[in-house]
Write a structure and sequence with these properties.
The chain is of the alpha/beta class and 256 residues long. It has helices at 17-31, 72-84, 156-164, 180-193, 233-239, and strands at 2-8, 38-40, 87-96, 99-107, 113-118, 137-138, 145-147, 169-173, 196-201, 204-208, 214-218, 225-231. The chain is globular, with a radius of gyration of 17 Å.
């Protein structure tokens, strides 16, 4: 099955939710004619990833977090998803009774919140957030998919877990490093777990396939989004191949 992914590629402004939201809506006007199946923003897009802002503390970060079920920002994203029959992965700071999470809110084609993923691997400035406690896989009309946020990709267990749960594509909102080492890492993550990964960074839209090849690598500072088609059937073919990694695992040996 072929799906079209649109990756937003702009640098949001820290602590400026309204400005970031308005810019997103303007870019979506340009994205709409491409008729994407999925739109992905970078990590913390709505708030400008306030976790890295030295002026924002663990106590004040809630000032820039939203409740996705009541926020006017998510309501407009929901309306766009509905109008354009697209899934949407929105990076934001999310408020909860216990604190604030670095989250990706997932809207389905009808604009309903299909799920929320909270960043699980917390280090350095991310200690301002609560750590996520699960690696869910979400159901869709194009099959199960996973979501991970930025640093989550550094741990191979993240991608492997999502792949073992059935994900054929993983959407990866991020704000961290995006150098050549990262390219090699993303290629390796895709190759070892036989999965597409859509790495979505403010300065780079990178998509790697289940053979470890690069499908898209858009780094131009003159474009605000990138669009690419991927064929999820490729995942099934690789996983059924003579050297399939997931099939030929030896979990009986993987003990610590």
């Amino acid at each position: 099955m072929i799906i079209r992914i649109a990756q937003i590629k702009v640098i949001p402004i820290s602590r400026q939710l309204q400005a970031n939201h308005e810019r997103l809506l303007a870019i979506l006007d340009e994205v709409a004619p491409h008729q994407p199946d999925v739109v992905i923003t970078p990590e913390g897009y709505l708030d400008g990833y306030v976790g890295k802002d030295p002026a924002v503390t663990r106590e004040s970060i809630a000032d820039y977090a939203i409740n996705p079920t009541t926020s006017a920002y998510t309501r407009e994203v929901s309306d766009w998803a509905t109008a354009h029959n697209a899934w949407f992965v929105l990076g934001c700071a999310r408020t909860a009774p216990e604190g604030v999470y670095n989250s990706a809110v997932i809207f389905d084609r009808s604009g309903q919140i299909a799920g929320i993923y909270d960043k699980t691997h917390i280090q350095t400035h991310d200690v301002k957030y609560e750590p996520g406690q699960s690696l869910p896989v979400f159901s869709s009309d194009f099959g199960p998919f996973g979501v991970m946020i930025c640093a989550d990709r550094r741990w191979p267990e993240t991608v492997r877990t999502l792949a073992l749960k059935g994900a054929r594509v993983i959407f990866n909102p991020t704000y961290g490093f995006h150098n050549e080492k990262n390219r090699r890492m993303m290629q390796t993550r895709s190759y070892e777990s036989e999965v597409f990964i859509a790495f979505t960074h403010p300065a780079q839209s990178l998509v790697t396939d289940p053979t470890g090849e690069i499908v898209l690598d858009e780094t131009s500072n003159t474009v605000d989004f990138a669009v690419v088609d991927i064929d999820l059937a490729q995942v099934d073919e690789v996983r059924a191949g003579p050297s399939a990694h997931l099939r030929d695992r030896r979990p009986d040996l993987y003990q610590t």
